[in-house]
Each structure stands twice: as structure tokens, then as C-alpha cells.
Amino acid sequence: MTTQRVKFYQVGSFAVGNRLLDPEQRTIQSGPDRANALTSGHRACRGCGEALGARFVQDAAMRAAGGKLISVNATGCLEVFSTPFPETAWQVPWIHSLFGNAPSVASGVAAALRAKGDTRTRVLGQGGDGGTVDIGFASLSGMFERGDDVLFVCYDNGGYMNTGVQRSGATPPAARTATTPAVGPAPGNPFGQGKDAARIAVAHRIPYVATATVADLHDLEDKVTAAMELHGARYLHVLVPCPLGWGSDASETVKLARLAVETGLFPLYEAREGRIAAVTRLRRGPVPVEEYLRPQKRYRHLFEPERDEATLDRLQSIADANIDEYGLASEES
Amino acid sequence: MREQIEGSQAVARTVASCRPDVVCAYPISPQTHIVEALAVLARTGKLGAAQFVNVESEMAALSVAIGASATGARTYTATASQGLLFMAEALYNAAGLGLPIVMTVANRAIGAPINIWNDHSDSISQRDSGWIQLYALDNQHAADLHPVAYRLAEEVSVPVMVCVDGFVLTHAVEPVDLAEPERVDAFLPPFRPRQVLDPADPVTIGAMVGPEAYTEVRYLAHTNAKRALERLPVLAADYAARVDRSVPAIADAYRAVGAETLVIAMGSVVGTLEDTVDELRGEGVGVGALGLVAFRPFPVDVIRAAVAGRERVVVLERAQPTGSTGVIGTEIRAAVPGGPPIHSVVAGLGGRPVTRASLKAVIEAANRGELPELSFMDLDTGLIEAAGSRP
Ligand SMILES: Cc1ncc(C[n+]2csc(CCOP(=O)(O)OP(=O)(O)O)c2C)c(N)n1
Ligand code: SF4
Ligand SMILES: [Mg+2]
User: Which of A4-8, A194-198, B284-288 has the lowest average pLDDT?
Assistant: First the structure.
């Protein structure tokens, strides 16, 4: 595919990378030769973390694949906002089949390429947390277990956003969703449920698993690039704030993603062949979870009408446990 | 090459001659022997570069086929019963995307109660999924329908189910003429997809379509299905000429000329039915048979012509009729308004044999005017009473 010159309309923003940096330190996305595989004009909400994440993931994968990439998409916001017939935002061969089968469809694409002897074209699968962690989980696990040559990326916004913000297996405890309403004696999503998809991916002993967010887009691109250097089943779990579902301001998407990391709630790591190989330590002493929770209306019941100290403590202890388990504490703390 | 061979082997080896690129399936009786045979063919290099993918479910099997087909691979899968239902969502999807996947359905009953034996409830339940459905009359026919299915699927961009009676055919050993691979090659050109996932020419497949165009998409699929019905006999005749035997593709009439009673059936029971027709004809009874091969798209014109002028029609329904009067009978009644009485006889459910004696009794009852619109063949009323119900 030919590359396109892009306007630097995001000049100076944290998201796109600072043009004052040395060229080799800039993001792929900030370069004039980015593939623009998910192009502008789609219908995502303002401040959509998933749209931002997908754009960086696609173009980093496109660069790594030398433009020879096929993308498979599960049903969900990303699919819906990017392909309202007769429009498409994809400038990459792209297929959407169903909600729960994207990893299998990607396996099929990879199998067809093998059968044709095409060793150059690479395969990227992607879905939301619902499509990945819940309804597509067997499909994902099967793809991992077979070791199919697919990089699968989960854009985790902690709920079924496309259908109106219902709970998924990746919804964090205490979060309000339409199906875990903030009413009754234990408002929001119950504690102790849900699943850690990235760790389960690691348990498959696949070549590469990493977590990332849309706060550190360099890191996100680097992880895509690292994943693309390998073959076999690979998995990337990307935290993507959703202003609509989280009840946050569109301008706070990147900040919230950063706070999720800095509180310890969302540990960043890479795992290779079933072992954690690298952990990103916190840049500064852990931020109290309250700073992350407060700007999000899905946690408002923790602060109003009165402070729910017990639940806030439980959430803080989850962050503390992560910091301990992954060794996230910064050098300075 | 005439060989004494199991039905599943005949199907697998014919599929191999169709040179699939990707074969994927999940095991379920009575489909297992087909995919086991293909696994061996793949491992021993007899499928060339084809990829044999073991998956974790039928949903995955068809999904792998969807991805592979959209990437330009000729794909094959097979299933039965619960497996077909497990695929249901992907069945509609494959048809909606116009992917020419060919699948063998080793027909089996559906649970509960769980039952591994043969009837047509599985594929019949998916009649509106957009797949073409062809029902094999015997093992020779089962084998021959596969190259025809591929050619048709790829020409009209519609997936095809080749329905083969589980156990009765899949596990039956009988002589089958296996087409030489060169003959299949001459008939079936390499797959040239209409639309393919290719980095050199990016396309978006599976976009979201709203009210402004969804009906039109469905209308086009409907007209395409009708075209499939025109092309099917032409392609089957082409293949038949190359292998030098007949390959019924829409329907196969047997001693139907001048018959006042026409019995319509699908699948392997047609063999027994033809024997019964012979017996009754020997007794001077005017009866004939129609083996229906294409059930989807439903060959309305052929059915109309076949039924016209009969005194009565008996339809053997090999699928559960829950709450209605039998699936095929209902379609025939709709196709022939004001036509002769159509008697649906539910027969051979969950592997119960359909005997010549029972068929004869049913036809004689129809001729006496004593067969209701819907009846169950060989119902064990004692068993029903013992269960505390009234028959
Ligand atoms: C089998 C099936 N069940 C339910 C749905 C409805 N549905 C479509 S998208 C979606 C939620 C998607 O959530 P997620 O995967 O997290 O993606 P997001 O929209 O949050 O990005 C649901 C429930 C569907 N399309 N198919
Ligand atoms: S609902 Fe959330 S995930 Fe969906 S488009 Fe809007 S911001 Fe993005
Ligand atoms: Mg989601």
C-alpha cells in the first residue's frame, strides 16, 4: 500500500509525539509515512480511547509488516464506528464476521496464507474486551493453543460499550454499568469476578503477551513492533478509556489511561514464552486510586452522596497488591 | 475407479480431489470418519499444500473457513446435529458474506433427547440460513455432489451444504466410482474469488448495513439463489458427462409417469422407496417416487410440474415437525395451491429404520383416503401409553 502524507494537526500534543524529538524517537503515527490504515472521518465518540489505540496499533503493525497486513475485527464499537455502509475508514484489507469468532477468522486468514505460500502478509485480529475476554474467549484460547500466526489485540474499555455500556468480564469491581447499576447494598460491579485475560494468555506460553495503554503511545507502538518481530500467536491487551461508558470528559482519555497505570490498577508488562519478561515501573510514587476514580462518573457512587470508604479501601488494596506482585514501585519510592 | 468403500471415505477422497486449500472441522458422530480420513490425507501429503486445522468448536471450524475463504482459499468443513446448531450464527454469516464454503452435513437427530442416529432435523433447521442444501440419495451421489457443490458455490458465491445421511450412508460400505482427480480438475477450475483480502487491493468485508440498503442486500441474495437453481442442473450435467454417470441435482423421478400417487422424499430412504414403488407397481398400484435433491433453494417449478395431475402426494418428513405439518409438506402445499392433498408422514426420526412394509402401508392408506394430513410412521402407541400419555 502506498503511504500518505499527513497533516500534523496534532502538533505538540502528548498523543502524537513531540516533533522536537529526534526523528528516530518519534512515534510511527507522527511520521509522514504512516499508513493511515484507520483513517479519519469515522464515527467514534470524541475522545474515544479505542479509536486512538486502534490507529496506533494498525499503523505500527503496518510498518512492521511492510504494508502487507490483513485485519480481522470482532463486532463492537471499533467495527461499528468504522464501517457504516457505504463508508469505510479502513485502508487495509479488513474483515468483520461476528462478535465471538474474530480469533478463529484470523486463524482462517493465516491458514489461507500458509496454503498459498504467502509468508510475507501478516494477520492482525482485534476486538473489544467483550469480544475478546467473554464471547470470543474460547476462540482466542484455541488460536493461542494452536499457535496460529496472529497478533490479537484487545481494546479493553471495561464493558460492552457498543450495546450501551453493559458489564463484561473485564469490567472493574465497583464500576457502574447498565447491568451493574449503582443501586442496592453493593452498588456497581461485584468484587472478585472478571478475569485477567492477559495473564491467561501468558499461561498459554505463547511467544509474546503485553499490556499497554493509550497514555504511552510510544510504548504501545514498541509493543506492537516487538510482537510483529515474532511469529505464532501473540496477544496485546490495551486499556482504552471510553468517555461515554466511563462518564469521563473526552479531554481526559489519555490522562485516565495514565492514572490507571500510575495507581497500579493496570500493570504494564511484557511476557515471553509464558514468563513475565519486563515490567514498567511507576514513574513516580503510586498515585492514590481516588485520583483515577474521581473523574469517572461510573464510580460516582463511591463519593456521593457520601464517601464509601470501605469500597475505596478495597480498590486501593487491589492497586497495592498489583504494585507488590509486579514490583511496580518506582525507584524513588 | 470403482471401489468397495465406506461412504465417509468416498466423500473425503472426492473432497481431496477438489483440492481444498483449508480443511477444518470439529469431530461429531457421524461426521468423524470424513474428517479423520482428510486428516490422514493431509498428513500424508495427499492434500498438497492444504492446511488441516484442528479447532476447539464447530463455531471455530466455520469461522476458520470464513477467514480462509475470504482470503481466497477453497475451504471445506463437515459437521452434524449439535455441531451444525453450534455453527448457526456463522452459517448465516458465511452466506451473508457470499463465501463459497462447502460443508458436508452427516445428518443426525438433534437433542434433547440426545440421539446420534440419522434424521434431517439438523440441516432442515438451518433451511433459511442462506446455504444451498443438496441431499445425497446414496454414497455415489454423495461423492459426486461435492465437485458440483464447489463449482456452484464458487460460481454464484453461495456456500453449499451437502447433506449425507449419518451412519446409513457415512458408515455404509458399498461400491463407489471415485472420480479420477484429473476429471475433477477438468471440471473444477481453481478458485477465483470475487473479493479477496489482499494487501495489494484493500477491501472492507462485512461492513455494517442499515435500513437504507439491508433489504436490497437480501433481495440480491434471493435472486442469486434463484440463479443457483438455474445453474445447478447445468453444472451437474457437465460433471455427469465427465464421469459418465447421472448426477441428479434438483430431483430424481422414479416411475412417476402416470402415477396417481407420488411419494416425495430426501436422502437415502429414496432407495427403499423405489423398491416399494416397484413392488406396488407389480401389484398394479399407480405409484411413483420423487427423490428431492435440492431443498434450498426450493425448486418450486420442478415441484409444481412433478405434482401436477396427481391424485395425492405423500411426503416423507425426516425432520421433527414441532407445531406444524411437516417442513417439506408445508413448502409443497405453498408451491402448489389448490393442488392435490399433500400427506406429511414423519418417518425415520432418530435413526428408526423406514421399512418397505411401512412405506407400503402408508401408501395404501393414502390410496384408501385414510391418511391424515400429518402422521407419524410406526408410532409405538404402547410405549406412549406406558409413559402415561395418550397417543
Ligand atoms: C452473539 C452476539 N451477542 C451479542 C451481540 C451484541 N453486541 C454487539 S457489540 C457488543 C458489545 C461489544 O463489547 P466489546 O467487545 O467490549 O467492544 P466495545 O463496543 O466495548 O468496544 C454486544 C454485546 C452480538 N453482536 N452478537
Ligand atoms: S462508546 Fe466508547 S468505545 Fe464506543 S466509540 Fe464511544 S468512546 Fe469509543
Ligand atoms: Mg468494551
Answer: A4-8
Q: Would you say residue B290 lies in a domain?
A: yes
Q: How many domains does chain A fold into?
A: 1
A140 part of a folded domain:
yes
Assign residue A313 the CATH number of its domain. 3.40.50.970
Mean pLDDT of B188-207: 96
**B73 contacts chain A (CB < 8 A):** yes
Q: Which of A83, A108, A117 sits opposite B22 (nearest CB)?
A: A108
CB contact under 8 A, B202 and A93: yes
CA of residue A157 to ligand 2 center, whole Å? 8
- Please tell me the predicted confidence (pLDDT) of residue A31: 80
- B24 touches A at CB < 8 Å: yes
All three cell numbers of B388, joined, read: 402415561
Beta-ladder partners of B53: B24
Q: Are residues B34 and B113 in the same domain?
A: yes
pLDDT tops 70 at residue A6: no
Q: Which amino acid is it at B74?
A: R
Amino acid found at B213: A
pLDDT in tens, A19-68: 566 777 778 887 878 899 999 999 999 999 999 999 999 999 999 999 99
Q: Which of A73, A113, A139 sits opposite B71 (nearest CB)?
A: A113
Measured in angstroms, the CA of B314 and the nearest CA of chain A are apart by 41
Question: What mean pLDDT, rounded, does chain A reach?
Answer: 93
Ligand 2 surroundings by CB, under 6 angstroms: A 44-45, 48, 50-51, 77, 81, 157, 161, 242-245
Alpha carbon of A111: minimum distance to chain B alpha carbons (Å): 6
Distance A155 CA to ligand 1 centre (A): 12
Bridge-based pairing of strands B261-265 and B251-254 is: unpaired
**B391 inside domain:** no
> Around Cβ A283, how many Cβ atoms within 10 Å?
12
Distances (CA, A) of B292 to B110, B226, B241, B304, B315: 22, 17, 21, 13, 10
Distance CA A58, CA A55 (A): 5
Cα A243 to averaged position of ligand 1 atoms, centre (Å): 17
- pTM of the predicted protein model: 0.96
Query: What b/e sequence results for A66-100 when a residue is b if at least 16 CB atoms lie within 10 Å of its CB, and e otherwise?
Result: ebbbbbbbbbbbbbbbbbeeeebbbbbbbbbbbbb
Is any Cβ of chain A less than 8 angstroms from the Cβ of B215? Answer: no
Does B63 lie in the same domain as B204? yes
Its domain, for residue B228, covers 2-243
Q: Are A306 and A328 in contact (CB under 8 A)?
A: no
Question: What is the ipTM score, two decimals?
Answer: 0.96
Q: Does residue B89 share a domain with residue B196?
A: yes
Kindly provide the b/e burial profile for residues A179-217, where b requires at least 16 CB atoms within 10 angstroms of the residue's own CB: ebebeeeebbbeeeebeebbebbbebbbbbbbbbbbbbb
Contact between B71 and A112 using a beta-carbon 8 Å cutoff: yes
CA of B63 to the centre of ligand 3 (A): 22
